Amino acid sequence: MLQAGIVELPNVGKSTLFNALTKTRKAESANYPFCTIDPNVGVVQVPDSRLQPLAALAKTSTIIPAAMEFVDIAGLVAGASKGEGLGNKFLANIREVDAIVHVVRCFDDEDVIHTMGGVDPIRDIEIITTELILADIASIESQIEKGKKKARSGDKEILAAITLMERLLPHLNEMKPALTLEMDEDEQAVLKRIFLLSAKPTLFACNVAEEDLADSESNEYVSKVRAYAAEHHGAHSCIISACVEEELVDFSDEEAAEYLSDLGIEDSGVSQLIRASYDLLGLASYFTAGEKEARAWTFKRGMTAPQCAGVIHTDFEAGFIKAEVVAYEDLIAAGSRAGARDAGRLRLEGKDYVFQDGDVTEFRFSS
Q: What distance in Å separates the CA atoms of residue 72 and residue 309, rounded to the nearest whole number?
């Protein structure tokens, strides 16, 4: 299962957010730096409003959402790339995840300590980005030195890696993340083998005060983060309020909906963050729906029908024959699979079909 790692400077609200995401109290949350030391890992359900209508159509009461993992990683300080604070542990943990959710503080509160002495989300972003880039520079310099010795054999993969790393080095020295270097598809494939920290896709989570949730556009910090993330990282941002989400942990769905309505918002920030992280990882969902259950299955965008069948069971992929597919919107409009078939919306797709988010399917396979 792919993982998104939650990172921040110490004491910005990350562990509180992790507890809200996982609906647990696993991560210690306190008003002092480094209350998270060892990473906490939690599996969370991906909110999907399409499952309930599918369950109703299939006449089942069992709903199984897609899931993904979040990792609560120790807070970082300037100098982490040189081992300061929990730097070595932080960088080792972040190297293991597939994407980064960077929590930045976008609220003022004298009662909540900020390790840098004041609130400045752009400064905070740059501190973490700088440490990731410095670690990448050290890694690349080491890989180039080792690679040149191996390249004497004429290994094309090593030569391609060295060529890309030599192009990356001046880019990183300008304090630009590896992910923002313009690369073709072949170079993107090489980049994955180099395992750079600043090459990981990133989402910025703006942690705001409760009173800013209904009108986050008026929050000056949020506006700055959105502009900076887009310009310097090619990244998106989302809005959360860790303190509000912590309150919602113990609420029922009905109580949570009423609480959010009183705040003037329709959806939990955590729900939006999960969906945005799912998309950040390049993940999407297809569905199966029958009498036993309505279920969302996770697949990587670009996967073919046999590969998606293998998500359910390897035997499905090995014996794949056809996939009977209908788009979610078409199925709901038709009212049933039979109705979708009569309307010409139900299709038989073969091995080359690339699955789309929202496909509802039944696989045909030989055992």
A: 32
Q: How much helix, strand and coil, in percent to the nearest 5, is found in the chain?
A: 45, 20, 35
> Which letter does DSSP use for residue 106 in this model?
-
- Among the residues of the chain, which ranges form H helices? 14-22, 51-58, 87-96, 121-150, 156-173, 185-194, 220-233, 242-248, 253-262, 269-280, 305-312, 314-318, 328-334, 337-342
Tokens representing residue 77 in the block? 């300080």
Residue 35 CB-density burial (10 A; 0-12 exposed, 13-18 middle, 19+ buried)? middle
Burial class (CB within 10 angstroms; exposed 0-12, middle 13-18, buried 19+) of 275: middle
Q: How far is it, in rounded angstroms, from Cα 162 to Cα 168?
A: 10
Q: At what angle do helices 121-150 and 220-233 cross, to 10 degrees?
A: 20
pLDDT digits (tens, 9 = 90+) for 100-158: 999 999 988 876 655 566 789 999 999 999 989 999 999 999 999 888 877 777 788 89
CA torsion, ordered 126, 128, 129, 135, to nearest 10 deg? 140
